[in-house]
Amino acid sequence: AQTVTQSQPEMSVQEAETVTLSCTYDTSESDYYLFWYKQPPSRQMILVIRQEAYKQQNATENRFSVNFQKAAKSFSLKISDSQLGDAAMYFCAYRSEGNDMRFGAGTRLTVKP
Amino acid sequence: AAGVIQSPRHLIKEKRETATLKCYPIPRHDTVYWYQQGPGQDPQFLISFYEKMQSDKGSIPDRFSAQQFSDYHSELNMSSLELGDSALYFCASSPRYYNEQFFGPGTRLTVL
User: Fold this and answer.
1) In this model, does residue A98 exceed pLDDT 70?
2) Closest Cα in chain A to B101
3) Is the peptide bond prior to B8 cis by the omega test (within 30 degrees of 0)?
4) Residue A30's pLDDT band (cuts 50, 70, 90)
5) Does A11 reach chain B within 8 Å, measured CB to CB?
6) Which of A4, A40, A108, B48 lies at 20 to 30 Å from A77 by C-alpha?
7) How many helices and strands (H and E) does chain B possess?
8) Chain A residue numbers touching B44 (CB-CB < 8 A)
9) How far is A14 from chain B (nearest CA, A)?
10) Contact: B35, A101; criterion CB under 8 Å
11) Is pLDDT above 70 for B93?
């Protein structure tokens, strides 16, 4: 079974600085997708960034980028120029073709002004 | 752009009562997923449907059932409610085999 591990229950970053959230996963599949979701206090699940496993290039979305290491089964999220609005719970998620999403336990990010 | 609609947004029930949660997927999305997120927990997959047929099943209690209708909306029926059923219930939709799932705003169920 696929598992997703987020080893950092909480992280803190100063506004305008950079923070990296860690995620590792376990799978025997070769084709799969990885996601980072943000869940603010409203509890809405908001997609931050996604990565297809077959792509070697790391995904980037504005201030958000990932470091995808397929061999190491690692998928970290880097947030640059952190903003107060980035404060939220961040979930790493894994999905193989046609299947459901498996989530990590989440990392609560605090942004200090 | 149209999003996933869930109703109701909030629901309060007593123990042993029943509840029905509804999900209206994004137009032309034929696959629906249900997740349960307990307090301080990550979302857990319950069940999914594709073209009105159950396609996958996760940790859904036997007291729960779900179905997808011809217009692709889905309903999650929960009977004999327990205190532990209090959670946020997400519905997500996608076109079949599309890598991303689009989440609704969730239904917050409180069982007293």
Assistant:
1) no
2) A101
3) yes
4) confident
5) no
6) B48
7) 0, 11
8) 103
9) 24
10) yes
11) yes
